[in-house]
What does this fold into?
Amino acid sequence: MKIIVEVLKKYKVILIAGILSALAVLSFVLMFSQSKESETVAKAGSQIDEMSQNIIKEYKMRPNYWGLSTAEVINKKLYAKGMGIKDGKLIGYFVGRVEIGADENGASVMPGSKNFVISYNELSKKQCIGLGGYKYDKKFWLNVSKIVIKNTKYQQDFVWGDEKYGLIPNKKVLKEICDSEDNKVLVYF
It folds into this structure.
């Protein structure tokens, strides 16, 4: 026991330096993983913003969004930079399926409809919380009528003027609603 005490006294500085180094590395790893998650959410959010602006610009001179669908967005290349097409499906930054149109499945918008939906599908809980609560700029929010979070357990609309479920969605509320897998974030314009 005496030998252990003497070794600890002798190498106290080295032990403290080792512990501090380990803590520094751990904090760096945690900080990097959080910033990486924020970065991916920002890229997915910017895709929604860019794509919605492309669609609004394309349909600006028309009376409505008649004919708008995922296939139409792909054909006219209205999707955002960084999005891909795999097996005829539009893939977003989170590598999940993205649908555009009258509903979450990309159905074609019918005549007279002045609204459309961008739906990010197959999202994890973290992706759902991040994208559902993403802080878009003011110009983006002027075009949004509601956001819907949907999974097998919940379907919650976030609308203007609602105290608990108002736009811009609260991350605390999103944590309760977003499920462990297969979430959808639908943005209605």
User: Anything to note?
Assistant: Residues 149 and 155 are 6 Å apart (CA to CA).
